[in-house]
Amino acid sequence: MNARERLSQAQAELVRALGVGGPVPAGFDTARVQAAAQSLIHKRRRAVEHAWPKLVLALGPDFAARFDSWARAHPMSVEPDPRVEGRRFAESLREQGPLPASISGVLLDFDARWNWIATGEAVRRRGFALVIRRDTFTRRWQVALRLPGGRVMRWV
Amino acid sequence: MSAVSLQGVGIGWRRELALFIDRMPSPGFVEVLAEHLPPTGPIPEPLVRLRKRGVPLVLHSVSLGLGAAEPPSSERLSWLARQAERLGATCISEHLAFVRAGGIESGHLLPIPRTLDALEVLAENVLRAQAALPVPLALENVASLFEWPDAAFTEAEFLREVLARTSASLLLDVANLHAHVLNHGTDADAVLASVPRERLAYVHVAGGVQHGGLYHDTHAHPVPSGPMALLERLARRLGPVPVMLERDDRFPSETELSAELGAMSLALERGASHGGSEETHG
After folding, report:
1. Which residues form the SCO6045-like C-terminal domain (chain A) (predicted)?
2. Over B2-51, what HEC string results?
3. A79 and B35: CB-CB below 8 Å?
4. Average pLDDT, chain B
5. Which residues of A touch B106 (CB under 8 A)?
6. Do A76 and A85 meet the contact criterion of CB atoms below 8 Å apart?
């Protein structure tokens, strides 16, 4: 192995320990690496809190614990975009149970404005964009229409 | 003089600080985060105003990962070069760190091992970056809660090696150095002594907090006395150096911010006025 290959292996092991709870590589101070892992999750959460204040309000005191456990299971594969991080987290909540109506509306609004993909990227939509879906739990139809210029109309 | 000729006391531009920065009578320079600039379209109006006022702008990047096993991609480098040109930046700074490995983004600046392997890879990556960037590159020391095992160099030796093996300048973060003094027992004076004035682009100062027996460099708390004292010691060696405040979160009142910037000026003055009592060899 050359220098790059050796470094590559060592860095990948460390990032797994920090991002997805992989084993702490030999020689490292385990408690310190775990403290760093916790601090990385905290940083991710803080960014999502800024980007999604209504989600924080809706989940109340549960927000931190639920976000942290989601974040550990969903490492970032592209550069962190807290808008998409929050949206992906909300999607996982939506799969687990009914969301407060206030949040459904916020998500619909977001989806009409942003084209986001599960790997974590978002592109701002342009022109007309229509989002139609049926809520898994209430079975009600939800519709959002983005108009050129950016205004979004919603029927929830 | 450094290849990067900044001076005075500056600040890191954040949307939340735009008004405060607009009102600053004469910021020495302003640092702008490359990742916060829109990828296309016009640059934010307050930055255009700063440029018109003649305030030098520095582009700061956190996503290249110059210390990574994988070299910085040409897409990433051309994106950064484009941002520097759009902004009219006088220099670009990046970290002595890696941010991704094995397909996972850490979302943070992770320390690199202080080994020959890492040094060799870093030097190659830096050369590649310099070849792609339109303005001088400055490298910043990072703060971390843990260290890699089996270091072949001390932090001071490692910085000297980085400067010897590349033509890059240094962005010395005294808050990160303060963190390493507390967390790892780093010899701060040895690090300060490893920086020749002609290779020093500028200095970062930021706040942090002690938590669970470790110092966290948060950029969200007041600047403690430690980094200010390091700034003073640096000025004692090198005279007044360009320095700026980084504040990213929990933004304080304008009075508090002004007080921190004032304290930085004072630390520079105090240090520089006591200069000459120490040797200033590089």
Report:
1. 9-94
2. CCCCCCCEEEECCHHHHHHHHHCCCCCCEEEEHHHCCCCCCCCHHHHHHH
3. yes
4. 94
5. 15, 18-19, 40, 76
6. yes
